[in-house]
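sry for the spam today, last one i promise. struct tokens for design, 204 residues
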């Protein structure tokens, strides 16, 4: 959901927070006679936590999702089949993951040999879950690639399956694969994608 402020909160923490806030509002009403809209205040507090301060060390324990935002750089290895012949290659690839307490968004692009950005993609929906060993996270999402009309690449849809791993030193990297609905279909893998910074700037 676009504005689901409750999505990434730990359930027991969320319940305790709402009970604590509601109890406080009732006490204010009884003691000072000031009526406050309980639902509105609770939602305002949750929104502030989710959008403004969710990543602070003293507050992010409320969420079951780690902070995976940042700029990841590595290589994309692609392949496609034309007339029964498989063609493959590699390009530098960049993923920008934007995150707060209720939303994740991924933007991706490849780099051409001349340093220009090509084939930007933006996600459509996002599912995040813990890996089976409960140590890392998996991202699954569909995306729309705007294509590159100057090179004859038409817009298309695709799906990414990513695993984000955080090591003992806090360094993050991602691996995974993708496939598209292009005709002929393209697919590939992400290689050595490491988080290099928190800089989310791009020129498109």
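last one done:
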């Amino acid at each position: 959901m676009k504005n689901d402020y409750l999505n990434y909160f730990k359930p027991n923490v969320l319940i305790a927070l709402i009970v604590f806030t509601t109890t406080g509002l009732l006490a204010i009403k009884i003691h000072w006679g000031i009526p406050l809209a309980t639902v509105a205040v609770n939602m305002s507090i949750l929104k502030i936590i989710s959008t403004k301060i969710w990543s602070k060390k003293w507050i992010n324990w409320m969420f079951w999702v780690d902070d995976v935002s940042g700029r990841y750089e590595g290589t994309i290895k692609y392949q496609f089949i034309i007339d029964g012949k498989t063609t493959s290659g590699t390009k530098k690839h960049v993923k920008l993951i934007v995150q707060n307490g209720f939303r994740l968004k991924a933007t991706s692009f490849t780099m051409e040999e001349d340093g220009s950005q090509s084939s930007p993609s933006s996600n459509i929906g996002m599912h995040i879950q813990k890996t089976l060993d409960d140590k890392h996270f998996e991202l699954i999402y569909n995306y729309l690639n705007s294509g590159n009309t100057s090179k004859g690449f038409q817009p298309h849809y695709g799906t990414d399956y990513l695993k984000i791993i955080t090591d003992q030193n806090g360094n993050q990297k991602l691996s995974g694969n993708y496939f598209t609905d292009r005709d002929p279909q393209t697919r590939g893998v992400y290689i050595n994608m490491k988080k290099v910074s928190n800089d989310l700037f791009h020129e498109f």
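Residues 11-62 form one domain. ok im logging off now
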